[in-house]
Amino acid sequence: MKPLKNFDEFIRAGIMRKVSPDYARARHLIEESEKRKRFIETARNKIGISDDNANCFIENCYDTLIELVRARLLKDGFSSSGEGAHEAEVAYMRNIGFDEKDVRFLNEIRYFRNGITYYGKSFEKEQAEKATRFMAKIYATLKSKAENIK
């Protein structure tokens, strides 16, 4: 996996562009993220994480977190599209105060999710457990950053 570029590089490349803030869409993404997080927690508690469902947990953890990043981007007046859009969104975490370790781990989950979605990769229980622990660790902070604008 190649290193993640800085957010400004995605702007210069036209992958991320300035738009009018969209607070309604941002609120919707925050609500969807909350529902997805509850689903993950319920599924983990009721059926548990296994090698058979690891991919589902990884995908849902990524989607839960990236929805919050997108909500913040929308409030800040940014929109992404095209190849590299998800990388640009992950890179934005640096701009809203996350440390490099957290940015790199979300980028790793993004990379795994792409492997699942586009290349038929399968992951084991251990990786899904790491993803769910990471989601639990940063969710509240990321949600707060998505809800509250300076």
Distance between the termini: 33 Å
Helix content: over 70%
Note the run of SSEs as H and E.
HEHHEHHH
Mean pLDDT: 96
Instruction: Determine and state the CATH class.
Output: Mainly Alpha
Number of domains: 1
The whole-angstrom Rg is 15 Å
CATH architecture: Up-down Bundle
Strand order of the largest sheet: 1-2
Put simply, the count of helices is: 6
Kindly identify the CATH topology.
Four Helix Bundle (Hemerythrin (Met), subunit A)
Structural class: mainly alpha
Q: What name goes with the CATH superfamily?
A: Nucleotidyltransferases  domain 2
The counted number of beta strands is: 2
- In percent, how much strand structure appears in the residues? under 5%
Task: Please outline what is shown here.
This protein is mainly alpha-helical and 150 residues long. The chain has one domain (21-147): Nucleotidyltransferases  domain 2 (Four Helix Bundle (Hemerythrin (Met), subunit A), Up-down Bundle), CATH 1.20.120.330.
Key features of this structure:
Four Helix Bundle (Hemerythrin (Met), subunit A), 150 residues, two-stranded antiparallel ribbon, 71% helix, mainly alpha, globular
Structure write-up:
- This protein has 150 residues and is mostly helical.
- The chain has a single domain (21-147), classed as Nucleotidyltransferases  domain 2 (Four Helix Bundle (Hemerythrin (Met), subunit A)), CATH 1.20.120.
- It is built from 6 helices and 2 strands.
- It has helices spanning 7-12, 23-46, 54-75, 85-95, 100-119, 125-147; strands at 16-18, 78-80.
- The chain has a two-stranded antiparallel sheet.
- Helix 2 packs antiparallel against helix 3, helix 3 (54-75) runs parallel beside helix 6 (125-147) and helix 4 packs antiparallel against helix 5.
- The protein is globular.
- 35% of the residues are buried.
